Amino acid sequence: MKTAGRIIYWIVALGLVSAVLVSVGYTLTQALLISLVVFCPCSLALEFLFPKARKVWDKVWLSLAIFVTAFLLILLVHHWLWHPSEHSEYVWMITVQPILVNPAFLGIIMTVLALGDVFCLRWLDRRFATATHPVTFFSDRRSVTVNQEDIAYIESNDTEVRLFLRDGNSYRNKTGITQWENLLGEGFLRIHRSYLVNRALASAETPDSVSVGGVSLPVSRKYKDRVQESLGA
Q1: Which residue, 127, 162, 182, sits at the end of a domain?
Q2: Does an H or E element contain 75, and which?
């Protein structure tokens, strides 16, 4: 059901984008193709790659790379779809509409689509919750699958992230902690730039610390209000 829900989300979202493109002069077929080839992959790239960029400049360069990719895809689609034939004189059957080379328009559409998918996935997780939520990741070059409920907390240490389980085992991983936060959803609470804890296993010791399975973890000023609201002080 979750997969079907996301497919429905993207069909509706790309349909709305296509309606916008139709309103500026494209045919329905052209608008659907542009939405599918340009906005779908670029929005997904923004959704999955942006959380991995930890530094501001990394986020800036990643955003620029996605914008350039979108522009190139727009030109490629127009060339492929509207060039009449390989034997005829090179002419554009239709020019690229100004709205498609407007960075603000591209940025807004891709951001809305990416955020919409994130919120849709979280809603689906709540709506179709199951007894266990298996999570698969790579640790030391091997695939590991654990139940989400068994993860006590996640610690980020620069380039390495470590998952600590409630049974005492731990695994190293390269996935960024922000991406883990998006993946695990509302069952986990960010308490520090370096710590993500399982709400069901965490309890507040003081306004500045949280206990998870007997381990005391610091709470940063940025997340203090959220932690107090969720766990109490």
Answers
A1: 127
A2: helix 56-82
